């Protein structure tokens, strides 16, 4: 009877051990899929230690190179009195609206150029020529014409994100398999069915690549516009800090831009993983 009890309890122990074994590789597997996330605390800690060590070793004044503690204090001060949120939300609004404008126009024109080689040959020289002019050079003109408010920053951001999205759209549409096109037509697929069932899913991988680049460039466009002429925004905050030699303020604004960039990039990556989950 005792032997029977021992035999009856052994499978339970094995099952518990196996369950624990399965749980551990699951966590390790998730960390292995996101090495940047796993190493992030160590990288940040190393940067902060090296930064603080350099400041102490060279004895830099705060207006040359502030230490992490001084930057943290400045961040807390600007966050508590609302200045950081006021400027960050304006810059974020410029980025989002500029992205919507530039990406929408690029998707429409990119699709037309991708479907029509004749239209591509007609318009491509002008589109490429427009991109040879640096945005920094035309930003002052846009500020003069449209003022130093929201509209000029949205236009600058839209211009700078337009070309990467346009190119990725053209490449994505032209990369659709011609045999699949013929198959869909033989099945009497309508134009909308061709687009939503074949062309868009096939072009999405390339489109998301262009969108990731556009998200980063949108931040550059918004800040360039604020540098040229603005009275609010993180770019304005950087200019203000430079003018009064408030270097910790500059660091705070730059770090806020990094956070915005990482958040938007992560959002696009999440959308990519969701809509392209069929590839995994």
Structural features, described:
By secondary structure, this protein is mostly helical. It has eleven helices and no strands. The N terminus is likely disordered.
Set out the fold topology.
Layout: H1 2-33, H2 35-58, H3 68-80, H4 83-115, H5 117-131, H6 135-146, H7 150-174, H8 178-186, H9 191-228, H10 234-243, H11 247-275
Helix pairs in contact: 3-11, 4-5, 4-7, 4-9, 4-10, 6-7, 6-9, 7-9, 9-10, 9-11, 10-11
Say how many strands there are: 0
Average the pLDDT over all residues and give the rounded result.
84
Distance between the termini: 52 Å
Structural class: mainly alpha
User: Helicity, in percent?
Assistant: over 70%
For the report, how would you describe the main beta sheet? Answer: none
Task: Report the sheet-strand fraction.
Answer: under 5%
Short account of what is shown:
By secondary structure, this protein is mostly helical.
Note the main attributes of this structure:
280 residues; mainly alpha; 11 helices; globular
């Amino acid at each position: 009877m005792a032997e029977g009890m021992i035999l009856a309890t052994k499978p339970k122990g094995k099952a518990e051990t196996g369950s624990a074994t399965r749980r551990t590789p699951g966590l390790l597997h998730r960390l292995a899929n996101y090495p940047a996330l796993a190493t992030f605390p160590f990288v940040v800690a190393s940067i902060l230690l090296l930064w603080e060590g350099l400041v102490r070793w060279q004895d830099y004044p705060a207006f040359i190179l502030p230490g992490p503690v001084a930057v943290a204090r400045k961040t807390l001060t600007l966050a508590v009195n609302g200045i950081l949120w006021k400027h960050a939300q304006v810059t974020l609004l410029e980025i989002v609206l500029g992205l919507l404008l530039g990406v929408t126009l690029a998707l429409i024109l990119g699709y037309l150029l991708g479907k029509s080689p004749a239209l591509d040959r007609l318009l491509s020289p002008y589109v490429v020529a427009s991109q040879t002019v640096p945005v920094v050079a035309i930003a002052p003109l846009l500020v003069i014409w449209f003022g130093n408010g929201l509209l000029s920053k949205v236009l600058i951001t839209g211009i700078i994100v337009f070309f990467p999205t346009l190119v990725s759209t053209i490449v994505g549409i032209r990369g659709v398999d011609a045999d699949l096109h013929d198959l869909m037509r033989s099945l009497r697929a309508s134009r909308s069915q061709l687009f939503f069932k074949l062309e868009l899913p096939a072009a999405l991988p390339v489109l998301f690549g262009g969108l990731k680049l556009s998200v980063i460039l949108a931040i550059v466009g918004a800040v360039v516009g604020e540098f040229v002429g603005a009275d609010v925004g993180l770019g304005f905050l950087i200019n203000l800090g430079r003018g009064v030699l408030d270097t910790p303020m500059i660091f705070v604004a730059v770090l806020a831009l990094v956070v915005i960039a990482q958040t938007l990039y992560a959002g696009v990556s999440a959308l990519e993983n969701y809509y392209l989950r069929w590839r995994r």
